[in-house]
Amino acid sequence: MEPLSFVREFVAPARPLLIRNAAPNEWQIQAQPNQIAASLKGAKVQVDIAGGGLADAVVRAPGPEATFVFAQPFVTHMTFEQFHAELNEVALKMKQNNGIAEDTPVPYIQHQDNNLQQDFSQLLDAIPLDGPSWARKAFGEPPEARNFWAGCSASVTSAHRDHYNNVYAVLRGTKTFHLLPPTDAYFVPRKPFPNARWAMEQDGTCVPKLTNDHDVLWIQPDDERRAMEETDDGDECGGKFVTVDVNAGDILYLPPQWLHRVTQRGPSPDDDLCVAVNWWWAGSTTVDMRSAVQNALEGLREL
Ligand SMILES: O=C(O)CCC(=O)C(=O)O
Questions:
Q1: How far is CA 20 from the centre of its chain?
Q2: Distance in Å, CA 40 to ligand 1 centroid
Q3: How far apart are CA 112 and CA 262, in angstroms?
């Protein structure tokens, strides 16, 4: 990819781009579980645990009122080998039962706090710290965060949007991105939900427990589901997600403010580990009409 064309054709008009087979083989080799474990030499890494694989998602809290809450993951630390063994157990349950119960703890390495550099720096001999050279040149500065992701098909990232330019490389398995442009975001409005965090119970299950933090604006599962439906039956929700499979070796560029919901799977049903890395460059901080119009559209929806 030529940096100037990338800026002109995709970054400036905020248009997503999928580049097939753009991640070099050595990145993919480094992302194989035995290779990751050998590089880390038993070091512990941060793992997020969420009931039913729903981290940072709106879920129903148990109890008579069954209210919806925004549940953040339970955070723990373990070696990559332990993580992989737990993930394999979940994947097996998922396969046997054709799904996963909402109180089953599902591990996902997804802590987007620059964890590629912090917990996985040993992988950086093969994977470049600051992303593909065309992206680095196009944005003209180092990325704000570099993230490492490892999970299985039980984990789903619920629909949300970020203010980052996202360059996302899948290195093992497949990620399915459901995308909606910022111009359609007002069809799936955000509403405030009480903040909660998944907690481990003594019987090994996982439940969301309310925190004292302020409410979180997030998309309601029903609205997300409607936006996933394939045909527009003329109901109120007009915006429909476009679906893109990003396979091992592919790189997706996702502009700021595009809504995305993400599912994943490993290379085969018996080998369900999906691995990816991404780099985030902050979007424009200047006051621009695009965000003003988007805020106005969302505001109109509330009237
Ligand atoms: O890979 C995922 O599960 C989510 C990725 C994502 O939401 C992001 O990169 O902003």
A1: 19
A2: 23
A3: 14
For position 112, which CATH number holds?
2.60.120.10
Ligand 1 binding residues, C-beta < 6 A: 110, 149, 157, 162, 166, 168, 175, 260, 262, 276, 278
DSSP SS3 for 97: helix
CA atoms within 13 A on the CB side of 50: 26
pLDDT of residue 285: 57
Write the DSSP assignment of 251-269 as a string of letters: EEEE-TT-EEEEEEE-SBT
Ligand 1, atom 1, residue with closest C-alpha:
262
Q: Is the dihedral of CA 25, 29, 32, 37 positive or negative?
A: negative
**Domain enclosing residue 16, as ranges:** 3-302
Supply the pLDDT for residue 129: 96
Helices (H) and strands (E) in the chain, counts: 8, 19
**Predicted local confidence at residue 26, as pLDDT:** 97
Residue 182 near residue 14, CB atoms below 8 Å: yes
Tally of domains in the chain: 1
Q: What is the mean pLDDT of each run of 10 residues along the chain (303 residues)?
A: 96 96 98 98 98 96 84 97 98 94 97 94 96 97 97 97 96 97 87 96 96 92 82 58 96 96 96 98 71 74 69
Say how far apart CA 202 and CA 20 lie, in whole Å.
45
Report residue 4: phi and psi, to 5°: -65, -45
Question: Is 0.90 topped by the overall pTM?
Answer: yes
Closest CA to ligand 1's atom 5:
262
Residue 68: how many other CB atoms lie within 10 Å: 18
d(CA 243, CA 230): 10
How far is it, in rounded angstroms, from Cα 54 to Cα 50? 5
105-108 β-sheet, strand order: 74-79, 44-51, 105-108
